[in-house]
Amino acid sequence: MSEQARHDKPEASRGTPARRRARMLAALGAAVGLAFVGAGVGFVGFLSQLRGVETKPASNADGIVVLTGGSSRISDAIELLAGGYGKRLLISGVHPTNGVSDISRSLPDSQRLLTCCVDLDRSAVNTRSNASETRRWVDEQGFRSLIVVTSNYHMPRAIVELSHAMPDTTLIPFAVIGDKWREEPWWTSGATLRLLLSEYVKYLAAEVRVRLASIGLEPFPETGDQPPGSAEPKRPSSG
To answer: How far apart are CA 212 and CA 143, in angstroms?
Structure first.
């Protein structure tokens, strides 16, 4: 072997790991880039599900459920009940210390409906347990269709959880549009963008858990999104 060959061989052997590392870094960078693109496309798809205006349900249902946690959800749900869109209303996720009297103070014109046709669920602490408690209520009432009232950004995840809990129940969404959403585009508000990104992540987690559960896997134990009624003020019609 020539003197030149003896010198070239170690150089080649030293260069091979460097090239491998470069290829691995390039592959990792491509994977990260694809993940970002996929997340961006998914976020756009998530946004496309969000309604920008409130639209009355196309049909009536046996019952109505409102998931607490956002402004004006309860008052809108009671308006639907008063309009005959459902026979009874379940308010799910009520703070343990709140009762019908707390709600009636904010909605004095709805006292009759609150007394005769409204049930309170104080057990639910997150969207997943909202779905469990709603299923129990639907079974007790013998209902087969349900109008779901919640904020527009929360509706996709709510439908995922409720559909999983009650696959044989027809769900009719009624998305509540908050004042802030009406006043300015979401992309101009940092707070709204953070809310949407957070909700998108929760929505993806719910989709993954539900899909795994459908094949017999339950990888994620139930955890709370928020303490009971923490986001729903005692005066639910405010805001």
So the answer is: 27
